[in-house]
Design brief:
The protein is mainly alpha-helical and about 180 residues long. It contains five helices and three strands, in the order αβαααββα. The termini are far apart.
């Protein structure tokens, strides 16, 4: 008797579970508010924010200053090297070695400056972009809560090659609206 009862429960669970799942899937595709997931294009949102244009202008200005200084260092090295080549035949070995050391030091300083400038530019970009990214993230969270999404993902990442439009809604326009971005 116990075996028969267990068998009947097993059959009921096996048959009933797919029917319940199918019923809830059908309801989700038929209801008008079925979009449980949202997607956004962060690049499209960021491209239209005035803060981004200002940040890029600041970064371009800073990049130009570092580039001018790097070119100055390179020109200085070239002048030293050219001078060294012109007088190397007439110098004693001790002075030649000193000049070679000076050239080596100058070249290393120039390379170190380039590396440091690149790191400083990356840091400046992070510092300028972080408040903007935070603002966009806050708007995305507000839109997600208002539209009752389970989650919102960034469509620019190309992590999901297919999205069922009945289950996923493009929330980019809603986020732009929250940020008061004009098209």
């Amino acid at each position: 008797m116990n075996r028969i009862f267990s068998f009947l429960i097993f059959i009921f669970c096996t048959v009933a579970t797919p029917m319940v799942a199918q019923n809830s899937t059908t309801e989700a595709t038929l209801s008008p508010s079925a979009a449980r997931y949202g997607s956004v294009s962060r690049s499209a949102i960021l491209a239209q924010l005035p803060e981004i244009k200002h940040a890029r202008t600041q970064l371009d200005s800073l990049r130009a200053k570092y580039e001018r200084e790097a070119r100055y260092n390179e020109e200085s090295f070239r002048r030293q090297f050219s001078e060294y080549l012109q007088i190397q035949r007439n110098l004693p070995e001790a002075i030649l070695l000193k000049r070679q050391g000076d050239l080596q030091t100058s070249m290393e300083r120039g390379l170190a400056f380039r590396k440091q400038a690149e790191e400083l530019l990356r840091q400046a970009e992070r510092e300028l972009m972080q408040p903007i990214e935070d603002k966009v993230d806050a708007a995305i969270r507000v839109v997600g809560a208002e539209r009752k999404y389970d989650f919102i993902f960034d469509a620019d990442l190309k992590a999901l090659p297919y999205l069922n439009p009945a289950l996923c809604e493009d929330a980019t326009a809603f986020v732009k609206e929250k940020l008061d971005v004009r098209r």
